[in-house]
Write a structure and sequence with these properties.
Distance between the termini: 48 Å
Shape: globular
CATH class: Alpha Beta
Number of strands: 8
CATH architecture: 3-Layer(aba) Sandwich
Structural class: alpha/beta
Helix content: 40-55%
Largest sheet: 8 strands, mixed
Order of helices and strands: HEHHEHEHEHEHEHEHHHE
Length: 230
C-alpha cells in the first residue's frame, strides 16, 4: 500500500506544473537549463527568491509564500512523495509564487546562478551528529561555500532545529568564520517569540511536520539567522 501511494504521488507531481525534477545528468557537473532564469522563465517577475533546503512536505515554503506574495519561494527536497503535499496545496490554491525542485541539495550550484537567491531557509535538517559526518551538516563549510555562490550580497540564512548539538555547531561555525549573527535563541517559543513583531512571530510559528513532532516530545526549538561574507 505504501509503495502504491508513493507511485500515485509521483504521478501527481508530473501533473501539477509546479514541480521540477532535473535528471542527474542535467545537474551533475552541468548547469540546469533554468539556472539563472527562475524569475524570467518560471515566476515571470523580478521578485526576490527564497530557497528552502530539505523542504520535506513544503509547509514552510507554502506558508511563507502566503505571507509574502511579493517574493518567490522554491522548496527543494530529494523525496518526491514528501514534496507532493506542498505542491498539491500550492497547485489547488493557484499559488504562483511557490514551486518545488526534486533533487539533492548538493546540486544547488548547478541550479542557481551567482547572486540569484536572496534568502535560504534550513528547516529541521538531519543533524548528522557523528563527528565523522560533520561535513554533511547543512551548515558545514562545504555547504556554506555553495550558499555563498548563489546568495546575493547580504543574503540571509535561517536555521530552525530541535537538535542542540547541531545548533551549537552552527553558532561555532558562524563565530569561527566571522559571519554576521543577526539573531539566535535556544528556545524560540519560550524566551524569544514574544519579543518579535507580529509578522515575524507568524512566520516563525509556521511549523513543519517534524517541528510538530519534536515539539510534542518536549524538545525546545532553536532558531538563528546570519549572513555570510562573500
Amino acid at each position: 500500500m505504501g509503495q502504491k501511494n508513493k507511485l500515485a504521488k509521483w504521478a501527481d507531481n508530473l501533473t501539477f506544473g509546479n514541480v521540477y525534477q532535473p535528471k542527474t545528468t542535467e545537474v551533475l557537473n552541468a548547469n540546469y537549463h533554468l539556472k539563472g532564469k527562475w524569475n524570467t522563465k518560471v515566476f515571470k517577475n523580478d521578485h526576490p527568491i527564497v530557497l528552502e533546503l530539505g523542504c520535506g512536505k513544503g509547509e514552510y515554503s507554502v506558508g511563507l509564500a502566503k505571507h509574502y506574495p511579493d517574493k518567490n519561494f522554491i522548496g527543494l527536497d530529494i523525496k518526491g512523495n514528501r514534496i507532493w503535499k506542498g505542491a498539491k496545496e500550492a497547485f489547488e490554491k493557484n499559488m504562483n509564487n511557490v514551486i518545488f525542485i526534486r533533487t539533492r541539495i548538493d546540486f544547488i550550484t548547478s541550479l542557481f546562478n551567482e547572486n540569484e537567491v536572496d534568502e535560504i531557509w534550513i528547516t529541521f535538517p538531519d543533524p548528522q551528529p557523528k563527528d565523522r559526518l560533520a561535513r554533511k551538516r547543512l551548515t558545514s563549510p562545504l555547504f556554506i561555500e555553495r550558499y555563498k555562490q548563489i546568495l546575493k550580497p547580504n543574503g540571509i540564512i535561517h536555521l530552525k532545529t530541535d537538535h542542540e548539538g547541531f545548533f551549537r555547531y552552527t553558532l561555532e561555525e558562524i563565530e569561527s568564520h566571522n559571519y554576521r549573527l543577526i539573531e539566535h535563541t535556544f528556545n524560540l517559543y519560550g524566551e524569544k517569540i514574544a519579543d518579535l513583531d507580529e509578522k515575524t512571530r507568524d512566520i516563525l510559528s509556521i511549523k513543519t511536520f517534524y517541528e510538530n513532532l519534536f515539539s510534542q516530545k518536549g524538545h525546545n526549538i532553536h532558531y538563528l539567522k546570519f549572513q555570510v561574507n562573500k
